[in-house]
Design goal:
Layout: H1 18-21, E1 24-26, E2 29-31, E3 40-41, E4 47-48, H2 56-60, H3 64-67, H4 77-80, E5 82-88, E6 103-109, H5 113-116, H6 120-131, E7 136-140, E8 149-153, H7 156-164, H8 167-182
Parallel strand pairs: 6-7
Antiparallel strand pairs: 1-2, 3-4, 5-6, 7-8
Helix pairs in contact: 6-7
The protein binds iron/sulfur cluster (SF4) (2 copies).
């Protein structure tokens, strides 16, 4: 592991996924979801034209692919169609106990969602996380200006089932995707203004 909890020797390369996908609502920068930041030049090299002066949220953000060695090179978001983010786990739907997990991984399907949830490598990764007690959220990106959907893929029953077979996990992933696809997206309301970099 390298500095700041990042995988040593790994860099973003041509990927610019976070400069497109993320909704950012910070005093220093606001950006609508699914809109390329106007400072992001998709030149094939993945460049931020204000890199040295980029705002604090941009300096501090790294996707899960930059943090987790277990995600191989093929998981880079622009290659895999999966934008993975590690975050604090604070679910209202699970009891808070000393054994409760504190971190979750959100897997946003930015490529071809229906194909991705059926991929063996994807289901295998979700299974491994659930079995090891790491909650997973499946997420669907929103159209520009709307909030993404996400569904928790984690329960005691699913953990027990995942220990036996990947089939139940695949079924839950497909149901979650179907559920999200049928839901209307909620509009994103910004709390901050003055530094909107959406196109
Ligand atoms: S999504 Fe991850 S790999 Fe891609 S540019 Fe952002 S931090 Fe780098
Ligand atoms: S300002 Fe931030 S969001 Fe915009 S291109 Fe630079 S790093 Fe990406």
């Amino acid at each position: 592991m390298g500095a700041g909890g990042l995988v040593a020797g790994r860099d973003c390369g041509e990927c610019t996924a976070c400069c497109v996908v993320l909704c950012i609502d910070d005093p220093d920068i606001q950006k609508a979801s699914s809109e390329r930041c106007r400072h992001c030049v998709d030149s094939g090299k993945g460049s931020c034209t204000i890199y040295l002066q980029r705002p604090r949220p941009c300096r501090e953000f790294f996707c899960a692919w930059r943090h987790l060695e277990m995600l191989g090179d093929e998981w880079r978001p622009d290659r895999s169609g999966v934008f993975a983010v590690l975050e604090k786990f604070e679910p209202p739907e699970l009891p808070d106990t000393p054994e409760s997990p504190t971190m979750a991984i959100t897997l946003m399907l930015t490529g071809d969602p229906e194909k991705t949830v059926r991929e063996k490598w994807f289901v295998k990764f979700v299974c491994a996380n659930i079995v090891s007690g790491q909650p997973v959220y499946l997420s669907l990106p929103a159209p520009p200006g709307y909030l993404p959907h996400r569904v928790l893929i984690y329960s005691a029953a699913l953990t027990a089932a995942a220990r036996q077979s990947a089939e139940p996990v695949l079924a839950v992933l497909e149901q979650a995707l179907m559920f999200m696809s049928a839901q209307p997206f909620r509009e994103q309301a910004f709390a901050h203004s003055g530094n909107n970099v959406s196109h």
